[in-house]
Amino acid sequence: MVRILLITAALLVMVLFLVLPLLTVFIQALSAGFGAYVAAIADPNVTAAIGLTLLIAAIAVPANLLFGIVASWCIARFRFPGRSVLLTLIDLPFSISPVVAGLLEVLLFGLNGLLGPFLAVHGVQIIFAIPGMVIATIFVTFPFVAREVIPLAQEQGNDEEEAAVTLGASGLQIFWRVSLPKIRWGLFYGVLLCNARAMGEFGAVSVVSGKVFGATDTLPLAVESLYESYEIQAAFAAASLLALLALATLVLKAALEWWHRGEIAASRPRTSARPQKAA
Amino acid sequence: MTADIAVSHVSRSFGTHKVLDDVSLTVAPGELLALLGPSGSGKTTLLRLIAGLDQPDSGRITIGDIDASSRKPKERGVGFVFQHYALFRHMSVFENIAFPLRVRKAGKAEIRARVEELLRLIQLEALAERYPSQLSGGQRQRVALARALASQPRVLLLDEPFGALDAVVRRDLRRWLHHLHREMNITTIFVTHDQEEAFELADRVVIMQQGRISQQGTPMDIYRQPANIFVHEFLGESNRIACHVVDRKVLAEAGYFLGHTQGGDGAATAFVRPHQIAVRPSASGPWRIAQIASSGTHARLTLAWQEARLESGMTADALLAAGFAVGTQVDVAFTSGAVFRDGGAPSALQNKPGETSGSALDAGRTRLSVL
Prior knowledge:
The structure holds two protein chains of two kinds.
Chain A: H1 2-29, H2 34-42, H3 44-77, H4 83-95, H5 98-109, H6 116-121, H7 130-156, H8 159-166, H9 171-182, H10 184-200, H11 203-209, H12 219-228, H13 232-259, H14 261-267
Helix pairs in contact in A: 1-13, 2-13, 3-7, 3-10, 4-7, 5-7, 5-11, 7-10, 7-11, 8-9, 10-13, 12-13
Chain B: E1 5-14, E2 17-27, E3 32-36, H1 43-51, E4 58-63, E5 66-67, E6 78-81, H2 93-102, H3 108-121, H4 137-149, E7 155-159, H5 167-184, E8 187-192, H6 195-201, E9 204-209, E10 212-217, H7 219-224, H8 229-234, E11 239-246, E12 249-252, E13 257-260, E14 266-272, E15 277-281, E16 287-294, E17 298-305, E18 308-315, H9 316-322, E19 329-334, E20 338-340, E21 347-348, H10 361-370
Parallel strand pairs in B: 3-8, 3-9, 6-7, 7-8
Antiparallel strand pairs in B: 1-2, 1-4, 4-5, 9-10, 11-12, 11-14, 12-13, 14-20, 15-19, 16-17, 16-19, 17-18, 20-21
Helix pairs in contact in B: 2-3, 2-4, 3-4
């Protein structure tokens, strides 16, 4: 009885907070018909926002992927001074409000900021331009890959790399054939999460973008601009793209997990010496 | 005959802890050598130094004709099997074994042929496409061995090869490895803390203690003539008897007579293994059976004489045949043993046939009068 009650409550909460809002987005987006939906998305300002969102993600995600690999490699393999400081710093973006992160960037790179005058002399504009938005996105999505990969690398240890050394592999071969493949599922989840956040980030990017509609607007910023100018249907049409992105991410993750389920099971740390049935 | 592996004056410290202290060792081609010692004796560190996974602080290691101290692991011609196998978890059995060939950029056909040959050798042809997590411990161990052999190394190094396996698999795999070694005749060093394993498998055993080599020799030599008390105790259970040597007679502190030995008079410690004590029923025997513990095929007798206690072992059949029970009066004879004086090499404990500790209680009295 208690069980049924709890399950019902959980389902209700899920419907109320997840399914209904999602449905609302699509109902609103299509409220003026499919033609109006397509027209809203084809608007040059919206397509520009889509382009910018993709560009920022295309820079921020690989940057954080690279960082995540290097950080996990160092932390799992070496004991060095500052190791625990690094581990703590990786979490910093999670504990700072994205708006504060954006403001910090303005204070650093803005015209009146620490490096602003120097950059202005050399004609480099970061704040209220695309570089600032990229930096803000990288900062906010910084922990996603690293947080997935570091615990995995620590758990798996260094044994396989040592084995590879005795089997005659060079450093580069060890990295490509052993170290990278054994963390690839952690990397993959990290990249998916990182990408979703990079495309959806609002706070930090909003502070540094200057919100020039059609020029420094990403998709989330465009949704807000449209909504504030009472173009409700267009705002929801843009928002539906973000909702679709979220759904696609989920589906992709589930599909790949299913497709490679045998290999994922194999890449988990071995906890028992019992023989298992083949997948 | 030149040595296949020569370790000379190698030392290695971790921080202030000296793990290896001036160790020298040679291994002949085709030899199967066991590094035996308790945990922390430095045996695994020595193996890792030979493999090139670690560098010595001082000393030299040569493998074949080349000075390996400065060579990278891949140039040493060494195959290494890790205690926990260290198989590549994201690769199938086939790919694990193919790895050393792939990194050497061998041809596809050559790789397939070699891997299939090795799969036959380890009798796992049917499991080539499995992942390591789908194998049993013994199967993983064999895959690790095949992988280490794939690039045809000059020497094979095994770190506690059977340490993580249960008793039955352990015994089977031990026999299989022995067989394999005889067939391939590859120079092999394996590390173990199990003296039974070392003695059964190895041509020669090196016993390590606190970063130094305590003794090396054939299993029989070491068993017959342990160099010191540490080695003797490490090789199995013993009665440790505080004693005095007086005029080549060995007399226990407790007052009974043990036997004869060579060397001068003085305080000593005698070691007598349970099976080196012969027990005979005798109504007038001074010893009494205080306790019998049976473990199926073998039985252990606790013998008592005044305050003194001895542990003796015999087969369960012999126990039944002799009709021993708790309380039986018996004669005790020490058939052999070792007498140590001040940490040096032992002298053998001997007895004339028919001579028992009971019959020589008079000798014990002699000792009391001497003191």
